[in-house]
Design brief:
This protein is α/β, with parallel strands linked by helices. It is 41% helix and 15% strand. A hairpin with a 4-residue loop joins strand 9 and strand 10.
Length: 867
């Protein structure tokens, strides 16, 4: 086995740079002349021609005449070291992901792999070195900490957040104005006009947005004074223009022209300015003086570059296809409320119009959470009749409310609802998917954990909170802890603490005007018998989140939140897999029986509790010690469980704490038509079919990916969970796992591991409504905060091409064999991708909500034609 380098360093700067990298690696891992061959492209033209080198430098790995690896252009030191290791070991294994993670390549190269300086896609190892180096520098790690984080990430045991996997190590994320782009999600109180622009900018940076829209919150907004009328939206420019938004106001003529800037801040500023015009008292006075009833506004898009061009400050490409429509809808919404304040639902629509504009045309979900008052009846029923059917059975979406689809809606219960109210909410969720309940007192109690010594103290606070004395209770605790605290300072802290029930889009983090700060342990990659390995993984994850606490946000409300209540959240995924491996088929049988209160069940619960407690303590100790050493405020809650939809596919984990859909299933992943990842997947052996959106004029699904109407494709990947072949497990049908069993496991995690909240999607059938309602009601005040409920969907044949399709072992084996036949000779996905890739193909990541509830509800709507 030999590395071949074709180069011309005397005339080629990239070649000289590559030589320096090679020497750096070879100083640590020397090769003999037999291990590396250097060919001068000019002086040894005939030799270079044998390797068909079209670009210099070209680096190859060959073995007995067979080309195993080729890179045209410079490669990183990390990748070159991989080639050196192959030569030294005499073997080259290009597979980057585990046997039970067949979706790993597709997901990684679709979602997380960036381009190197030579426009090649980085490998998983390169990506990990990129983000680990950056987090080490940000976190000022010791050598031991750096080594631990890198080892655990390369081993796929502990990974940073999905956003950090994408932006970590880039120059973009080192700028303070872009720090928010490092975080999956946020939550913002909608208590001022500023909040709307902030959330649009967060979404444009790839961060999901939570918003508290309770009545007392939106009541802080002023009345709308002015009616706006969009009289014209100009065409887009042919290339990028001014980055800054400008407004030319001719108020004496009751007109204004907003020239939208060609940048992230330009889009946001134009959106914010339009909103502020509706509230401007000086404008109102001028309109009244001149006898005008509205302001006529021209939206000038001449400075905005067309779709597909990189947008300044966006971190990706622009797609202004819905930009003009957004301004029209925003102006219409504001004008209809002239003379009064916006309702919570109208505020929600104002946020969601911006969200819809941002994600338009991209293959990604919007991530959003909107929290409403319990007694806000308009909000409770906001999504009712969102879809209607015409006489032919075709679904149509309400054009006014359509963008309410962009976010999850939750009702905030500040006192424990009656059992009847909970049953009504559960029933509504079964039939519509809407109406989730948040029990606020638990969220506030957990978010002030530093004030409570025991769980009993928390429960006492919740009781007093429901009676209206929550503030007094917290005040008394602060008085004991800090008796000399200044009155105004105490009042500010109490206000902050009582607002710490904000949720991020997937509901796993609690706080007030916060940024999520997540890392994740992949339990399915760790031996249940190796406690030390588990502790190391959770320690590494703790260091990853603690490092980001060095970020200082530019926006005052987010900076204040971090100062008062620093947020970290170490999550895990693959818990169900871990427990099956740890406890075997008997634990699975007990789960399938509903987790009955037997002696065996008691023993299983104690074992679960043991693992969960070890992991929680490892995180807490690591974060506390790190923060104290760096003089950072120690977070009072450190553990959570996120939905873990996308990253779980990198290792083949069952998402978060949830069970997998089945022991074996087809996983379908959406990509754009002719995406190089899809072309590589076909070469690798996977089948590719048109997506749900590909339909003919009659609404029938298309079968030909080459049909021009097929603009999205699905990659079909046969998948088997890591424990599928343990004796006895095949007798259990996971689709029959009861809601009670799911709730029991969820509450075990919520009680013994999670200090924030556990993101949960409980799947249930109609006959389980009463039981599930009783469980939720009974656990309010005993750990429950919120969970998504999803009607269990059994009829896969009715709606084909869903993301998950359970299959038998026979079908799985047959599909795997076909993949092997089609992909014969292709063992390196990265190399297959390089054949089809182009620097012109723009890579983007998504601010996706990847919880089961979001994916299932969105894809079911698509399957039913509700698009």
């Amino acid at each position: 086995m030999q590395i071949v380098l074709i180069s011309a360093p005397d005339r080629c700067e990239p070649c000289r740079d590559m030589d320096a990298r090679i020497q750096e690696v070879l100083e640590l891992k020397p090769l003999t002349s037999a291990g590396i061959r250097i060919i001068h492209a000019d002086r040894q033209e005939a030799e270079a021609a044998k390797y068909n080198a079209k670009v210099i430098p070209t680096i190859l790995l060959v073995n007995e005449g067979e080309e195993l690896f080729r890179a045209e252009g410079r490669i990183t030191s990390v990748l070159f070291e991989t080639l050196v290791d192959a030569v030294l070991l005499g073997t080259y294994d290009p597979e980057e992901f585990r046997e039970h993670a067949p979706s790993g390549n597709v997901v990684f190269y679709r979602t997380y792999s960036r381009r190197t300086e030579s426009d090649q896609r980085e490998t998983f190892k390169e990506a990990i070195h990129r983000v680990a180096k950056d987090i080490k520098e940000l976190g000022q790690f010791t050598e031991d900490e750096e080594a631990l984080v890198l080892k655990q990430a390369l081993g796929q045991h502990a990974l940073p957040s999905g956003r950090w996997l994408w932006v970590g190590g880039t120059q973009w994320i080192k700028q303070q104005e872009n720090f928010s782009g490092a975080y999956n999600c946020t939550s913002t109180n909608v208590d001022s006009l500023e909040a709307f622009g902030l959330m649009m900018e967060l979404a444009m940076m790839g961060s999901g947005t939570g918003a508290i829209l309770e009545k007392d919150m939106v009541a802080k907004l002023p009345k709308i004074l002015n009616r706006l009328k969009i009289t014209k939206v100009t065409e887009l420019g042919t290339d990028g223009g001014d980055a800054e938004t400008r407004m030319i106001g001719k108020f004496n003529e009751a007109s204004a022209r907003i020239i939208v800037g060609d940048s992230r801040k330009g889009w946001v500023s134009a959106y914010q300015r339009l909103i502020e015009l509706a509230y401007d008292p000086n404008l109102r006075a001028r309109l009244n003086k001149d006898g005008n009833d509205c302001l006529k506004v021209i939206i000038d898009l001449s400075q905005v570059r067309p779709a597909g061009r990189k947008l300044k400050g966006f971190g990706g490409t622009s797609n202004p296809v819905k930009l003009g429509d957004m301004f029209k809808k925003v102006a219409s919404l504001l004008s209809q409320a002239q003379g009064r304040k916006l309702s919570a639902v109208e505020c929600c629509l104002l946020i969601d119009e911006a969200a819809a504009c941002i994600v338009a045309g991209n293959i990604r979900r919007s991530a959003g959470m909107r929290q409403f008052s319990w007694d806000d009846l308009e909000a409770k029923d906001a999504k009712d009749n969102l879809y209607t059917q015409d006489a032919k059975g075709n679904w149509k979406v309400d054009p006014i409310k359509e963008n309410l689809r962009m976010a999850n809606h939750t009702r905030c219960a500040h006192t424990k609802p009656s059992l009847e109210d909970v049953k009504a909410a559960v029933t509504k969720q079964f039939f519509s998917g809407e109406g989730a309940i948040q029990y606020v007192p638990e969220a506030i109690a957990r978010s002030s954990a530093d004030l409570f010594e025991t769980r009993d103290d928390m429960e006492a606070f919740m009781e007093m909170y429901e009676q209206g004395y929550g503030k007094d209770f917290l005040c008394s605790l602060i008085d004991v802890e800090r008796p000399d605290m200044h009155k105004e300072e105490k009042e500010e802290e109490l206000t902050d603490r009582l607002q710490r029930y904000g949720l991020n889009p997937c509901g796993e983090i609690l706080g007030h005007d916060f940024h999520c700060n997540l890392a994740e342990v992949h339990l399915n990659t760790i031996d249940p018998r190796n406690i030390d390995a588990q502790i190391e993984a959770f320690q590494a994850a703790g260091l990853q989140v603690a490092a980001l606490l060095h970020h200082e946000f530019a926006v005052d409300r987010y900076a204040y939140s971090r100062m008062m209540d620093p947020i970290v959240g170490v999550s895990f995924t693959g818990l169900f897999d871990f427990f099956v491996h740890a406890f075997g088929e008997p634990w699975l049988a007990w789960m399938m029986a509903g987790r009955p209160n037997t002696q065996e069940g008691y023993e299983f619960i104690e074992k679960e509790k043991g693992y969960l407690g070890i992991w929680r303590r490892a995180v807490h100790t690591t974060v506390k010690e790190y923060c104290e050493r760096h003089d950072l405020k120690v977070p009072n809650r450190t553990t959570t469980v996120q939905p873990a939809g996308t990253k779980s596919l990198l290792t083949g984990a069952s998402s978060g704490w949830h069970p997998p859909k089945a022991q074996r299933f087809i996983r379908r992943i959406t990509v754009g038509a002719n995406d190089p990842v899809a072309l590589a997947a076909m070469e690798y052996g996977f089948s590719v079919i048109p997506a749900q959106s590909a339909r003919d004029e009659e609404g029938n699904l298309l079968d030909d990916i080459n049909d021009p109407r097929s603009t999205e494709w699905l990659i079909e990947i046969p998948t088997e969970v890591s424990w599928a072949n343990i004796p006895g497990v095949d007798q259990h049908d996971l689709s029959q796992l009861s809601a009670a069993a799911q709730f029991g496991l969820y509450m075990s995690v919520q009680t013994h591991y999670t200090e924030h909240n556990t993101s949960a999607t409980i799947e249930f059938r109609e006959h389980e409504i009463d039981q599930l309602a009783e469980l939720i009601h009974g656990h309010m005040g005993k750990g429950y905060i919120s969970a998504a409920l999803l009607a269990r969907f059994d009829a896969n044949a009715t709606f084909p091409r869903l993301p998950f399709e359970p299959i038998s072992k026979e079908v799985y084996d047959e599909m795997v064999e076909r993949v092997s036949i089609r992909g014969e000779g292709c063992e390196d996905f990265h190399q297959a991708l390089a054949k089809h890739d182009s620097a012109d193909f723009e890579l983007t990541t998504s601010a996706a909500c990847t919880s089961a509830a979001c994916i299932a509800s969105a894809d079911r709507a698509e399957a039913e034609g509700k698009v």
